[in-house]
Write a structure and sequence with these properties.
By secondary structure, this protein is mainly beta. It has a single domain, classed as Jelly Rolls. Strands 1, 2, 4, 5, 6, 7, 8 and 10 form an 8-stranded antiparallel sheet that branches. Strands 3-9 form a two-stranded antiparallel ribbon.
Length: 142
């Protein structure tokens, strides 16, 4: 992909339909992709899944995740064309990072309609959460 093409990437997840395996009161799934870092989605459980429907097929460049605080959040970022079959594009099951903000590059040629974050570990006493999730890409001609 050319440098000029990268400049055309936009957050294709902003305000798109989304969901989660669970939600806490006053912290619904839609707060994770509403463009505001002062709102957040919290699961009702430590480990959960959050997903977004991009409503079309996009060639993905990167995914930015912002958590509520610094801590060792471990997760998988997965993509799907049909919400049935999922592919792991980012595997952070063994990460030692405690950064609240993460920028994950997608493998070259990643094209998808759905993006999902599956939490596999959160610090003791925490719940899965996202203050914001951004997916950068360009419309794909399939």
């Amino acid at each position: 992909m050319s440098i000029r093409a990268l400049k055309n990437h936009v957050n294709v997840a902003l305000n798109r339909p989304c969901g989660a395996s669970s939600e806490s009161n006053n912290h619904p799934a839609r707060f994770a992709n509403d463009g505001a870092i002062d709102t957040s989605w919290y699961a009702d459980e430590p480990l959960a899944r959050w997903w977004v429907d991009l409503e079309g097929f996009y060639q993905l460049a990167n995914v930015k995740l912002r958590f509520a605080a610094e801590g060792n959040m471990r997760y998988l970022v997965e993509t799907s064309d049909d919400y049935d079959q999922w592919r792991v594009v980012v595997d952070r099951r063994l990460t030692d990072s405690t950064r609240a903000e993460r920028n994950e590059l997608c493998p070259p040629g990643t094209i998808a309609r759905y993006v999902r974050v599956k939490f596999v570990h959160v610090p003791f006493g925490w719940r899965a959460n996202l203050c914001e999730l951004e997916v950068y890409g360009i419309l794909s001609v399939r």
